[in-house]
Amino acid sequence: MGSGLLSPRGPGTPGPGDTALPDHIVWSLFNTIFMNWCCLGFVAFAYSVKSRDRKMVGDITGAQSYASTAKCLNIWALVLGIFMTVGSIVVLVFIYVAVYRTALEIMKNRGY
Known about the structure:
It is a single chain. The model is unreliable at about 1-5 and about 10-15 (pLDDT under 50). This protein has helices at about 25-35, 40-55, 60-110. It has three helices and no strands. The protein has one domain (about 20-110). It is rod-shaped, with a radius of gyration of 25 Å. The chain is an all-alpha fold.
C-alpha cells in the first residue's frame, strides 16, 4: 500500500510497485544457488528482476509477462535440478561400487 500520510498520493492509494503481483525472486534465487543445472536458475532470476523493475514503473502487463516466464523457468530448473542431482548420485554410487569391487578383486589376486 501507499506509505500513508507522507505519500503524495494520499493514504491507502496504491502506486507503482504496490500490487500483489508475485515476481518469484526468492524462488529464482534458490534455484540460482542450489539448482542451477543448465543455468536456468540464473535466467529465471534475471526475468524475476525484470518483472520487479516493470512492476516498479507501473507496467503491470510487462511485469506479469516476465513473472510468468520466470515461473516457467523456475519449474524447469527445479525439475531438472532434482533429476540431475538424483541421477548424478546414482552414477557416483555405481562408479564407487565398481571401483570397490575392482579393488577387492585386485587384492584377492595378489593374496592380501
